[in-house]
Amino acid sequence: MTGPEHPRADAAGEPAGAEAPDGPAAGGPRRSGLRNPERAVRGLGAGTLSLEALVLLLAIQPIRVVGGDLSGTAIGAVVALAVAAVVLAGMMRRPWAWHAGTALQGLLMLAGLLHWSLFALGVIFALVWAYALHVRRVILG
After folding, report:
1. Which of 20, 43, 53, 64 is an S-S bond match for 85, by CB 3.0 to 4.6 Å?
2. Is residue 74 part of a domain?
3. CA of 80: how far to CAs of 26, 44, 49, in Å?
4. Range(s) of the domain holding residue 136
């Protein structure tokens, strides 16, 4: 034979060694197409929390300049929330970290009692976190 070798087909016409497709139509488990879905979801959670920490720290000065009076207590709360977000981003392998991330979003909205802009940031990041949880639920099932 001068051309490339082709595997023999079985009685159903499938090439030898071919696997049945997974998916809802085949009756198998739904696949996300990701090589390691757990790792991808952990990366999404860690990236979300890291971005939140960065935005919180970078928002301190503009809030002070534009938003008016930002007390030392509010600045301390922002820094503490940013540190907590970084720590949680590093602990996303643990299942409880997702619940702690949800609590962190609530604490950020609660910090809105110290300054209204912290509540606004809390709402924005709660929506982003809710989307990350939705993606986690879709991918992992």
Report:
1. 53
2. yes
3. 49, 22, 13
4. 37-140
Q: How far is CA 17 from CA 7, 10, 75, 98, 126, in A?
A: 8, 9, 62, 40, 47
For residue 50, tell me if it sits in a domain: yes
Question: Considering the domain boundaries, does residue 134 fall inside one?
Answer: yes
Do residues 105 and 122 make contact, with C-beta atoms less than 8 angstroms apart? yes
| Residue bearing tokens 């809390």 | 122
Count of beta carbons in the 10 Å neighbourhood of residue 46: 21
Q: Are 50 and 86 in contact (CB under 8 A)?
A: yes
Specify if 108 maps to a domain: yes
Q: What does pLDDT average to in each consecutive run of 10 residues of the chain (141 residues)?
A: 53 49 50 81 95 95 80 90 97 94 96 90 96 92 81
* pTM beyond 0.85: no
